[in-house]
Amino acid sequence: xxxxxxxxxxxxxxxxxxxxxxxKKDLENLQNLLEITPELAQNYLAKKTEPLISxxxxxxxxxxxxxxxxxxxxxxxxxxxxxxxxxxLSNQSLEKSIKLTLSKVLRDQVENSLKFLxxxxxxxxxxxxxxxxxxxxxxANLGEKILEKKDFSEVFSNLGNNFKGEDIKKIYVTYLxxxxxxxxxxVQNEGNLSELEQLFGMSAKxxxxxxxxxxxxLLENEIKKVLEKKAFDEENKNKINxxxxxxxxxxxxxxxxxxxxxxxTLKQILLKESFPTQKEQExxxxxxxxxxxxxxxxxxxxDSLSEIPYQKSINEALGATGIIPKNYWEGLENLRxxxxxxxxxxKEIFYRSIKDKLRIGLEKAISxxxxxxxxxxxxxxxxxxxxxxxxxxxxxxxxxxxxxxGNELVNLVDLYSKNSIFVENEKxxxxxxxxxxxxxxxxxxxxxxxxxxxxxxxxxxxxxxFNKKITTDMYREYLVECFSVKSQNEKRKLFNNLDKLxxxxxxxxxxxxxxxxxxxxVVYKQYLSQALNKGFLxxxxxxxxxxxxxxxxxxxxxxxxxxxxxxxxxVSVLIESIFSTSKVNADRxxxxxxxxxxxxxDLNNDLEISSDQRSKxxxxxIDNAIEKGKITKENQELIGEIQSGFGLPDDLSKKxxxxxxxxxxxxxxxxxxxxxxxxxxxxxxxxxxxMLNFGDLLPIQIKNSIGSGKERAELFSIYQTNFNESxxxxxxxxxxxxxxxxxxLN
Length: 746
Prior knowledge:
By secondary structure, this protein is mainly alpha-helical. The protein is 69% helix and 4% strand.
C-alpha cells in the first residue's frame, strides 16, 4: 500500500515539481482506493514534501540575512505561500519545517562567525553576526504573516544552548568592540547588543560585566592621556564627560575607573623614599577635582597607601623609650595632613605601634621575672612557693613579690599616660544627702548635689597577645609588690598606677576584682596577724586596713569576716599554746582571757572550747589570783570576771571554786607540816599565809588526817610568833581566829 502511494506521488511531482489540481484529485481517489485515513495520507505526503519545502525555506532565509525592502519581503511571502499550496502542506507541517530549517540556518551562521574568529578575522566575523541580526529582524516581519499567532521565538532563544559559553562570549565581545570603534555606542548598536543577549541567553549581569571590561579601558585610556599631559582644564574635563555619555558608561563604573587611576597615581607618588612635595600634592588635588572625585571616594586610598611611611615615622618618634617627645606631636600631625590621612586611620596606626611597645615591655617584665625566679647558680627551676607569702621576710606585712617586676610594669603605665592615650569620660551623677538643721534637734533636710567623676577608657591594650594566665599572674605580682615594698615613695608610686595597669594588660573588671580579692585576702590576713600580736587593733591599724579595703575594692562584709576570723584565730592559738605544755601556766591563761575579752571572742560560742578546758583554765587562774591575794573575801569581783571570761555557769563555777579552796588549803597545810618537821619556820609561815588566803574566802576546818594535834599547835605558835607587824590589831585577830578554825584548835 505504501509502495503504491510513493509511486503515485513521485509520478505527480516529477512531472511538474508540484501537485496539480488533477494530481490532487488522483491522490484522493488513490486514498479511497487503498482505504487509508486522511491522517495517514497526510503523513505520506509530508514525508515527501518537507525536504523540498525546507530547501525553499533555506533559500528564503539566506536572502533574509541582509537588509530588504517591504516589496522584497512580500515577494518572499508570496513564494512561500505558492510552494505551500503546490506541496499541499498543512499548517502543522509548515510550522515544523520553518522551525527546523531556521534553527539549522542560525547554527550554521554562528559557526561561520566562530570560524572567522578562530582565524583572527574579526571583521568577517562581525559581518556574520550582523547577518544573524538581519535574519532575526526580517523573519520577525515574515513569520507573523506566514502563520498567524504562531510563536517562533523559542528557535532564537535556544540558539545559545548549542554552543559553549566562552564561544558565545567571544562573539558578543567581538561585536561589542566593533560598536565601540568610535568611542560611542548608538541606539541601533544598543538594540543589536540587546538582540544578541536574547539570542545567546545571556544574563543582564553577564552582559554588564562584559561591557564594563570592554568599554572601561576606552575611558581609562582617555583619562591617562590627560594625566600624562597634566592638562586638567575644563575642555578636557568636558571631553571626558562626553566620552562617558557616548559610551553610556554607568556612573558606578565611571567612578570605579576614576578611583582606580587616582589610586595608581597616588601609589606612584608614595613609592619614593621622600614624602610628597608641595607640587605633587597640588597636582594630585587638581587631578582629583578634574575627575570630580569627592574626598570620601579617595580617603581610603590615602589611608591605606600612606600607612607604611606614617607608621615608620610613628615608630621613629617613639624611639627606644616608647614615649613621643612633646615637640614631635606637631610634626606628626603635619605629616598626617600632608599625607591626607584621616584622623581615625592615624589613631589606628598609632595604637598599633603603642600595642607593640606594650607587648615588648611586658615581654621584658616576664623575662626579668623568670631570671629572678631562678635559684642562684641555676639556669632554670621553680621554687614552688606561694609568691605572696614569705618565710622570714623582713617587710612590714611579711609578704613579698617573689619575682618583683613593678618597675617594668610601671613603664607600661608611663608609656600610656605620657603618650596621652587615655580617653577621659566625665560622668555626672546626683548625690542625695540628709543634712541636720542647725538649732533644730532631730530635724533634717534632704539636699541634692550634682557631682562629676572622670572615668578612663583604654583604646589599646594587650588583650589577646598573651595567654590570660600570664597577664593575671603579672598583675598579681605587681599587686603583691605594692604591699611588700619597703620604701614609702616606691609604694606610693606603685599604688598610683595600680588602677590603670589592669586594663592596659587587657584584664576586665571581674578578672581584676578576682585578683584583688585573692591577694587582698592574703595581705589583709597577714597584716591582721601581725597587728593582733599585741592583742588589739588601734586606730592607725584600722585606718590601714580600711585603706587596703578601699584600694582593692574589697567588700565590707568580707573584710569584717577577715577581722573576726583573725581575732578568733589569735585567741585559738593562745589556747593551743597554753595546753601544749604539761602544766598550765596561770599568767598565760590570764593574758589569754584578757585578750579574748578585748577582741570580743567568746571561748564557748565562737571557738567552741570544751567545758573541761574552760573549767581547767578557770581553776588555774582563780587559784593563782587567790594565792596572790588578788581575790579576797572583801574583793571577789575578779571571780565573776574570770567566770564570765570562760563562759561557765554559776553552779559549776561555785563547785570549782570550792574544790580549789579545799584542795589548796589541804595542800598548803601538808607543806607547812613538812616544813615544820624540817625545822623551817620561815617556810611554815609562808605556807600558812597562803592557806589563810584561800580559807578567808571559804572558812573550813581541814581534815584531821593532816598532821597531829601537837604539830598543828606548833604551826599555830610559829605563825603567832612570826606575824606581819604591819597588820592592824583587827586584821591580826581576824587571821588568828581563822587559823584556829582551819587547824581545829579550841
